[in-house]
Specification:
17 strands; single chain; cell membrane; Histidine kinase; kinase; transmembrane; phosphoprotein; alpha+beta
């Protein structure tokens, strides 16, 4: 869900790529799954086949060893062997030779009874000789004879491993603690056992081993020593887990093998067959290789598709988007048409036509707006003059009537001349701020004549060399005299100061008038905020505020608040840049 919300606000390139990958990746995943499932099925079938073959050959070995173990008592009870073992030295040489030959014939029959018997033997300690099926003069090997007596449980553990050879023996008598009269045994054919083991994995190219962990012997079919050691470790793991049969994939020397194992309770040994996995899954390896080639091809397709998408769709689209953003920034620049007659070519041409039309309309509207602004400035400026003209003549008449005020009347006439000379100079819409401040000082001197020393005025702050609309400071000062300071009984204070901050210039006009309330200040601020909707409002503050906004923009103009002196604070914000 989060991914969907992310894609909703993403670019069209990301959305198309996400849709393409959403279609491609599941197909690759399904192909991979089919390949792996097929690999697992083939591995299971081959494993089961090898395990069945192992069961068959191990059952054959078990039956053959069991048959030899069960037939051995019949040969042990041979009367000639008993007589020779008991009274051999008392016999005549002829009689002893005849008995030995008869015994050899019996041993020959025993040897020929099973292909797994390498040799049949009778160990006779009285004669100090071993009787073989095909050899007459043999000396009794004491070490071998002692080793053949270690078999205590014929049917549970019939095998004796000695000197890399495997035997099944039976002493006579077998139920006494004394040394037996003789021992009858057979030596199993290691070659035949290895041949049987080789039958298990031969068709699959595998190798087999028969491991007896208790006696430490093994029979294998030419297995690498390192791999044989790995098989011994594997058999130990299975014995610890008490696992009798099964299969498992093992890794040896960075190579994977399929190990099929079965435990024989008669041999007390594990039969383990190792088949290289590459031989088991040879056909699937080809498909797996083809799958990786398909993945590489898919990557190439993704790269090609990405390049195609970027080159023919995304970049032209972003070019169009950037052009629209330039239009939003009032940069009406046409697009360089590098497309043919496709959809983007049509959009480019339509965009350029629209830009040309907008330029024409903007130029016409701009000229009309300039004319309207100049007309508005003249109208607002003319609204200031009649009101102040009436006040000036009223004060002048009062001074002329007084014999003692003739000097002030003369000075006042000079101020009036300077004042009206300033405001009637209509050939310039903007003047230096320094002249505007000087004009305001002239106005204050005129008011000083009217009010005397009752109102104290303080000018502070430097003035930057910038051009401003005419009459933006004097009307604010006039407003303070008219509505705050003129009717006060106690001394009045007027503080005019300035501040430059972050590329803007601020003029502050503050008084200590007590007649204005917080509600009236808030209402006045609201009128200033919505002055564009109140064109009919023609007060001094509104006139100055609208003229400043026409010059600098809506971020500039006049704001009002409570002054630190107790009256009204008027802030004039101008642009320095």
């Amino acid at each position: 869900m989060n991914c969907l919300f992310f894609l909703r606000d993403s670019s069209i390139f990301k959305k198309i790529m996400a849709a393409f990958l959403a279609a491609l990746l599941p197909l690759m995943a399904i192909t991979w799954t089919i390949n792996e499932k097929g690999s697992d099925n083939i591995r299971s079938e081959i494993t089961e086949s090898v395990l069945n073959t192992t069961r068959f050959y191990m059952d054959s070995l078990d039956k053959e060893a069991d048959r030899i173990s069960r037939y051995l008592p019949n040969y042990v009870m041979d009367t000639d062997l008993m007589e020779l073992a008991a009274t051999g030295n008392d016999m005549s040489p002829y009689e002893r030779t005849r008995k030995i030959l008869d015994i050899q014939r019996q041993l020959e029959l025993m040897k020929n009874s099973s292909p797994f018997i390498e040799e049949a033997k009778a160990y006779v300690p009285l004669l100090k000789r071993s009787i073989l099926s095909n050899d007459y003069e043999t000396r009794l090997d004491p070490e071998e004879y002692m080793a053949m007596q270690q078999n205590a449980k014929l049917y549970e553990a019939p095998f004796i491993y000695w000197n890399n050879r495997l035997f099944i023996t039976m002493p006579y008598p077998g139920n006494t603690v004394r040394s037996p009269l003789y021992i009858l045994g057979v030596e199993l054919s290691a070659a035949k056992i290895k041949e049987t083991l080789a039958q298990i994995g031969r068709t699959r190219g595998g190798q087999s081993v028969l491991l007896n962990l208790e006696l430490g012997w093994s029979m294998e079919t030419g297995m690498d020593p390192a791999l044989l050691q790995r098989m011994k470790s594997f058999a130990l793991e299975k014995r610890e887990r008490q696992s009798d049969e099964g299969h498992e994939t093992i890794v040896h020397d960075n190579k994977r093998y399929l190990a099929v194992y079965k435990y024989s309770s008669l041999w007390h040994a594990y039969s383990i067959t190792c088949i290289p996995e590459e031989l088991v899954l040879g056909s699937l390896q080809m498909y797996r290789t083809l799958f990786w080639w398909a993945c590489a091809l898919a990557v190439c397709i993704v790269v090609f598709f990405t390049y195609f998408l970027l080159r023919f769709i995304y970049r032209p689209l972003m070019k169009l988007v950037h052009s629209f953003r330039r239009v939003q920034q009032n940069r009406l620049e046409p697009i360089l048409i590098d497309r043919g007659a496709d959809e983007f070519g049509y959009l480019y041409r339509a965009f350029n036509d629209t830009v040309r039309s907008l330029k024409t309309l903007i130029e016409e509207n701009y000229e009309q707006q300039i004319r309207n602004q100049r007309s508005e400035l003249k109208r607002l400026q003319s609204q200031i003059n009649p009101h102040f003209l009436y006040n000036c003549f009223f004060v002048l008449c009062r001074l002329i009537k007084s014999e003692s005020q003739k000097e002030k009347a003369y000075q006042f006439c000079l101020y009036i001349g300077q004042y009206f000379q300033f405001i009637t100079r209509n050939d310039e819409d903007e003047i230096p701020l320094e002249l505007e401040v000087e004009h305001s000082r002239t106005y204050i001197e005129m008011q000083r004549i009217c009010y005397g020393e009752r109102i104290q005025v303080l000018f502070e702050g430097a003035v930057p060399a910038i051009a401003v609309p005419r009459l933006i400071l004097q009307p604010i000062i006039e407003n303070a005299y008219k509505h705050a300071l003129g009717n006060m009984l106690q001394p009045g204070e007027l503080w005019v100061h300035s501040e430059r901050r972050d590329g803007d210039f601020f003029l502050y006009v503050e008084d200590n008038g007590q007649s204005i309330t917080d509600e009236e200040i808030e209402g006045l601020q609201k009128k200033l905020r919505y002055s564009s909707n109140r064109i009919e409002e023609t007060t001094g503050l509104m006139n100055v505020h609208r003229r400043i906004q026409l010059r600098y923009g809506e971020a500039y103009g006049i704001t009002v608040s409570r002054s630190e002196l107790g009256g009204l604070q008027v802030i004039i914000k101008l642009s320095v840049s």
